[in-house]
Design a protein that fits this description.
Elements lengths: L3 H14 L4 E5 L12 E5 L1 H4 L8 E7 L3 H4 L3 H15 E9 L3 H6 L3 E8 L2 E9 L27
Parallel strand pairs: 1-2, 1-3, 3-4
Antiparallel strand pairs: 4-6, 5-6
């Protein structure tokens, strides 16, 4: 696996930010490259779409450029990522080709890394609900929720 070094360093960085106890992977079985402290589950991409929700994992890793996932139509790839993003995982890591960048950006993922491995340009994308959207400065009580003005002004 060409991205073994990238994945191990990425997992170490993610574990330092927040503990990872449970994780799942789709597209390629990466459980052999990860620390033993993580409880990994590997799923086939087509079977995963039919699985019911049973638990929320700390991390999900999807390797989109692998044949098992890349053979799926774009619509099913999007459904797979949305199911992981919204339902199954707190944090989502997607490893994909450069040609899938627009699709991943449209699904709300942010690019973490752009790596050229074995003459193949791979991009690492992430989705973390905790830092998905930065809170704008105007969205605070100083501008809109002033209880001291409730009986003074008519809106």
């Amino acid at each position: 696996m060409a991205e073994q070094h990238v994945l191990t360093s990425l997992l170490d960085d993610l574990r330092q930010q927040q503990p990872i106890h449970t994780a799942l992977c789709l597209g390629q079985d990466i459980t052999v490259y990860s620390p033993e402290a993580i409880n990994w589950q590997y799923f086939n991409a087509s079977d995963f779409l039919n699985l019911p929700f049973t638990q929320r994992y700390d991390l999900a890793v999807v390797v989109l450029h692998e044949q098992t996932v890349s053979d799926l139509p774009n619509e099913q790839q999007s459904q797979l990522i949305v199911k992981l993003r919204d339902l199954m995982a707190k944090r989502l890591i997607v490893i994909a080709d450069q040609k899938q960048a627009q699709q991943l950006r449209a699904l709300g993922l942010t690019q973490m890394l752009n790596q050229i491995l074995d003459d193949e340009q791979l991009m690492v994308w992430q989705f973390n609900i905790l830092n998905y959207k930065q809170v704008p400065d105007w969205l605070n009580s100083r501008f809109w929720a002033n209880p001291e003005h409730w009986n003074k002004f008519r809106w």
